[in-house]
Structure formats: structure tokens, C-alpha cells
Amino acid sequence: MAAKEEKENKSVLVTVILLLLCLAWSLPTIGLLITSFRDRDEVNRTGWWTVVQGADFTTENYKQVLVGQDFTYVDAQGNQITARSENMVRAFLNSITVTIPAVVIPILIAAFAAYGFAWVDFPGRKVFFIIVVALLVVPLQISLIPILRDYLKLQINGTFLAIWLAHTGFGLPLAIYLLFNYISTIPRSILESAFIDGYTHFWIFIYLILPLSVPALAAFAIFQFVWVWNDLLVAMVFLGTQEEVAVLTQRLLNMIGSRGQDWHLLTAGAFVSMILPLTIFFALQRFFVRGLLAGSVKG
């Protein structure tokens, strides 16, 4: 009886510790969420934790982020002009335009490559696979300028094609490695049965490998989607600063003002930008752990 009570006490203690850790981890996000509903003057005057003493909440930050905001400037003739800044709608659509192909293209290429490395016997297979794995440790920053020079020669810099190709190249090593670990664990007997029935490698890949590899494909899709969606560096280099092709992260950067005086808008914009990645994650989360653990245990 005493042992059972001691075990229950330990379980309660572990639960409390885990809850405290989760709270500590979530505290910055909670602070940003509260700040996104506070007035600009209150944000500059007091910290977000003063909300426990009572504070007025407003949706003005979200209104400015989603609809735009009025600003006044003086033209060359000295006339005072009032205009409205662009909202996040175009940037949101641009991010979707960039992210979806940048996720789908490397998944398709990596799936074919992973199947080849796992089940197709060709000269230099192990050497090529080692090279692919070695590319995982190469920082993408060192390749930005050489790729940019090539894009300038091809006159595709500043287009969506340029950033699609860039994200495809940067994401392929991880995608191939992750999918290889999963595809290589598929029982050989399944493939041998398909070969006996007259299927070629291509049709085995289409009808067997892809359906069986959904957990690994979903796991990489989450990684790639979140990375591309939150990317700023690659977008700045290969898309430039043109407003018509600016993605969400670039729009958020411009939103805070030239001197960072409007950073309270950044908190609202950040939560707006989180909606789609969170939706994707929760939609695919049942495959996520299965895909990450693929190939870790054999037998």
C-alpha cells in the first residue's frame, strides 16, 4: 500500500513539473498574445504582465495588420498627403504561392531518389548517398551568393521560380535522408511479389511506395512548410524588395517601421501568420511522430 502511494506521489510530482515547464516555455508566447491586443501607448509604457491589474484590450492592431493603416507624408511640393499602407493579404497569398511548390517539388524528387538509394542497385549508390548526407551539414548561407550570380545570368532573380528552385535545393538532402530511412524498412517481400506480377520500378513506386510512405512524407512536409513559410533570408536574397512578390515575413519586417516604432503591430502580424502553419501541423500531426521514428528500429 505504501509503495502504491509513493508511486502515485511521484506521478503527481512529475505531472506538476511538466506543467511548470510547459508554462515557462509558453510564457513568451502568452506575453506576445496579450501585447497584440494592447494599445500602442500602453505597450510602450508598461509591460504585458501588468494586465493582471486591469487593462483595456483592443483589436486595433489586428485591424491595421489585416486592413492596412493610414499614414501622412509630405510630397516634393510640400503638400500633406494621407495614404493607406498595404495590408497583409497580398503577402499572405505570395507566401502560399512560394510555400506550396517549395514543399511539393522536393517531396516528389526526394521520394524518387530515396527509393533509388534504397532498392535500386546502381554503381556508386553508397558514395552518392554519403554525399547527400554530407550536404546536411553545409550551411545554406555560403551558397546564396553563387546561386544569386547564376540567377542574375539566367535573369530569373526576383521571380517565384528562383525561390522555388532555391528551397528545393536546400530541402532535398534532409528530405532524401528522412524518406530513405522509411522506404528502406519496407519489407523486401512486398517488392519481390510486385516484380513477379510484372511491375516495373516506376509502377512499384507509384502504387506501393508512395501510399506506404505517407507518414514520412507528412513529417517532411511539416518541416519544409514551416521552414519556407517562416523564411526571410532566402526570400530577401532571391525575391528582393519588390512589393508585388514580397512574402509574409518581408511584410512583417516592413510593418514595424524604419525605426522599429510600430513593433506592437508585429505581435498581431505574427499570430496572423501562425494560422496556416498551425492548421497544417494539426492536420498532419498523426503522421508526424510515425514519420520521425521511421527506420529507427528494425526487426
pLDDT < 50 runs, ≥5 residues: 295-299
**Which outline best applies?**
flat
Mind telling me the C-alpha Rg? 25 Å
Instruction: Give helix and strand order, one letter per element, not per position.
Output: HHHEEHHHHHHHHHHH
Q: Report strand order across the widest sheet.
A: 1-2
Distance between the termini: 40 Å
The chain-level mean pLDDT equals 80
Largest beta-sheet characterization: 2 strands, antiparallel
- What is the total tally of β strands? 2
What structural class do the secondary elements suggest? mainly alpha
Number of helices: 14
Percent range of helical residues: 55-70%
Proportion of strand residues: under 5%
Task: List its salient traits.
70% helix; disordered C terminus; two-stranded antiparallel ribbon; mainly alpha; 299 residues
Describe the structure.
This protein is mostly helical. It has 14 helices and two strands; from the N terminus they run αααββααααααααααα. A two-stranded antiparallel sheet has the order 1-2. A hairpin with a 5-residue loop joins β1 (70-74) and β2. α3 (60-67) packs across α13, α4 packs antiparallel against α12 (248-255) and α5 (125-134) packs across α7 (160-183). It is flat and about 75 Å long. Mean pLDDT is 80; it is low at 295-299.
Provide a concise account of the structure shown.
With 299 residues, this protein is mainly alpha-helical. The chain is 70% helix and 3% strand. It has helices at 2-36, 40-45, 60-67, 89-119, 125-134, 141-154, 160-183, 188-196, 201-212, 214-229, 233-238, 248-255, 263-273, 275-292; strands at 70-74, 80-84.
